[in-house]
Design a protein that fits this description.
The chain is of the alpha+beta class. It is built from six helices and twelve strands. It folds into two domains: about 100 residues, no CATH class; about 110 residues, Alpha-Beta Plaits, CATH 3.30.70. Helix 4 packs across helix 5.
């Protein structure tokens, strides 16, 4: 799935409800959860920040009948949530682990504002990758807590010198350490190299599964 910049900026719960309504309206033979408030069995690979566009999101949908991909696509395409596009459909094994537990990382494309020289950006990216520790702070509830970004950073590099310059980064989703945020990667580069870096846009290019990185 892809989400365009024009998509409404919905919190994760609102987004899930919008998708549930779209799937229900599509007439798919979707499986429902049990309990007082049954809901279509749909799950997302990872929460997507409200203002972020995406090009390769993963969504699991459980059907009670085996439909060919073309039929599912035909049913869905007319009523997808505003700003969303269907990229690809594929069958997965029902006995496999939950989707959220299989997502290990994400790839991001970060467009920066004008100013920094390509050589300085490349040097800053190399320095934080070589660092043993990257001390950052994040807001958690009503508190600001320190954390080490380095275990959550898998890669960062200058993909295009620009203008505008474009960085690409891969950060982890970790059940205990949390999520590596692309804006924190840029902030760490700016701090370490003494640069002023302005983020114009961030696109989550794809989610990376555990079996892709070993």
């Amino acid at each position: 799935m892809a989400r365009d910049p024009v998509a409404p900026q919905l919190a994760q719960r609102e987004l899930a409800e919008t998708w549930e309504a779209a799937i229900d309206a599509a007439g798919l033979p979707v499986a429902w959860t049990e309990g007082a408030r049954p809901r279509p069995r749909i799950s997302f690979g990872a929460p997507l920040p409200v203002q972020m566009s995406a090009e390769g999101e993963l969504i699991d949908l459980v059907l009670t009948e085996r439909w060919p991909a073309w039929r599912v696509r035909e049913a869905l395409e007319g009523g997808l949530p505003n700003g969303w596009r269907l990229i690809e459909l594929e069958d997965v094994w029902l006995g496999g682990p939950p989707l959220a537990g299989r997502v290990a990382a994400a790839d991001y494309r970060i467009t920066l504002g004008p100013g920094p020289e390509p050589a300085a950006l490349a040097k800053a990216a190399g320095e934080i990758l070589a660092a043993a520790r990257i001390d950052r702070q994040r807001v958690k509830g009503t508190e600001t807590v320190p954390y080490d970004l380095r275990p959550l950073l898998m890669d960062v590099r200058l993909a295009a010198p620009g203008p505008p310059p474009i960085l690409v980064t891969r950060t982890r989703f970790h059940p205990e350490l949390g999520t590596g945020r692309p804006e924190e990667v840029v902030a760490a580069m700016a701090e370490r190299a003494g640069l002023e870096l302005e983020i114009i846009s961030i696109v989550r290019e794809r989610l990376v599964l555990l079996d892709e990185i070993g």
